[in-house]
Write a structure and sequence with these properties.
High-Potential Iron-Sulfur Protein, Chain A, mainly alpha, two-stranded antiparallel sheet, electron transport, transport, signal, 6% strand, 2 helices, 2 strands, 4Fe-4S, 2 domains, TAT_signal, 101 residues
């Protein structure tokens, strides 16, 4: 009998939590947007390891043309698969650059 009570209480609080978070269809938790993320600094340890620079020394190799770059086409700063939680310069470059197909 005690087991049913615990399950019922759990379901009640779970439902209340879902309702509280969504508040009538407006979600309080939203995915991070590129504008919300910090810019990757050249002195970041991972950036240093991959020789990341904000301005590519290679005219034909820029982050904007890399297969690892994500986000909205044409934006100056975009997320990269190699640097989660940060955005990189579309004009940047790193040693992991791979030509977009």
């Amino acid at each position: 009998m005690k087991k049913d009570s615990s399950r019922r209480t759990f379901l009640k609080f779970s439902l209340a939590g879902v309702i509280g978070i969504t508040l009538g269809g407006k979600t309080l938790i939203r995915p991070a947007q590129a504008a919300d993320l910090p810019h990757l600094a050249e002195d970041d340890p991972q950036a240093k390891a991959l020789q990341y620079v904000e301005n590519s020394p290679h005219e034909d190799q820029k982050c904007d043309g890399c297969a690892l770059l994500q986000g909205e086409e044409g934006a100056d700063w975009r997320p990269c698969q190699l640097f989660p939680g940060k955005v990189v310069s579309a004009n940047g470059w790193c040693s992991a650059w791979v030509k977009r197909p």
